[in-house]
Amino acid sequence: MPLTNTAIHKAKPQEKTSRLYDERGLYLEVSPKGGKWWRLKFRFDGKEKRLSLGVYPDVSLKDARERRDDARKLVAKGIDPSANRKAEKETSGGKNCFEVVAREWFAKYSRDWSKDHANRTIRRLERDVFPWLGEKPIGEIKAPELLSVIQRIESRGALETAHRALGNCGQVFRYAVATGRAERDPSGDLRGALPPAKGEHFAAVTEPQQVAELLRVLDGYEGTITVASALRLAPLVFARPGELRQAEWKDIDFETSEWRYLVTKTNSQHIVPLSRQAIAILKEIQPVTGRGKYVFPGARSKDRPMSDNAVLAAMRRMGIPKDEMSGHGFRAMARTILDEVLGFRPDFIDHQLAHAVRDPNGRAYNRTAHLPERKKMMQQWANYLDKLKAGVDIIPIRRGA
Q1: Which entry of 124, 331, 351, 375 is annotated as an active-site residue?
Q2: Is 365 an annotated catalytic residue?
Q3: In contact, 384 and 342? CB cutoff 8 Å
Q4: Would you call 240 a catalytic residue per the annotation?
Q5: Is 111 designated active site?
Q6: Domain edge (last residue) among 44, 76, 108
Q7: pLDDT tens for each residue of 293-349
């Protein structure tokens, strides 16, 4: 039964803390000394949590119910009320200001990051973004305003940091869109506004014309069949280089056209749908390496995977410079073109890249999320690469100024 004001007034302290329950997770906690606190019990990200809603009688039963409903609305949007409250306390800009939303985003997603990466990310926002955008309503921030903040970073010569800060801001804006605090992500309008970053980014070819030329060069490799097959398969599956060279035959399923393996970076299971073109490459090399453990065994021992330098060395011998393409570059190549040319949904792409993606309620998607759509995407991607090699559909990417 729901609580009444009479029942609350008559509640007496017991030897131990007692509770009077209302509805939808709300209850009144009565301490042995007579204090009465409103609490809300809720579940978020699969875990049971509690939130303090104030002290009775300063917060009446009616007020407590309103606060409960507000908190439950946040949960429905995928927002942890506890993290939201903490973020609001750390800034005076209001619950929908950029800093509150950014800290909420950080609290939600940083649990999947390394400690160092998390610390660098929040420090970057605190130092370079919050002082200028922190207290502004996130839904009112426009591209020119964001650009001026990013250019402050660029002006001190920290171009790499500027790119990373812009990327972080984009993630925050997209989170705000997903949770109903903004209508769009203005960072997308700034594509091309900064000079290309150099340094830690992996070199990658992303323009269709250059991709076409790269694919033709890779197909012309005249070394061992093991390295040749790896070079041809890499663009089709765009897995991390270490995962590709350590691929095992037991994980390849020709009946379902899938490659299933454990992602070392996130320690999670992953599925790569294999296109007809990828299957053809694997069947071509199967008579050569199929009796062993690895799809791409090393040159000196079949009991060890191919060297992490084998693909890179092959590309360098074919005249592909290190500042043009890297082993990781196939991932950036696929990410850019699948989004900007073929128009696939970003979450489909992120799942296929084995990024740590979560749904609006903070739950980690399992490996089968959007699998039918990803299978169609991988086949369309392989078909598109074939057209590029044939000189068809080479349309330049239009980038913002």
Answers
A1: 331
A2: yes
A3: yes
A4: yes
A5: no
A6: 76
A7: 999 998 888 889 998 788 888 888 888 877 678 778 888 889 888 887 888 887 788
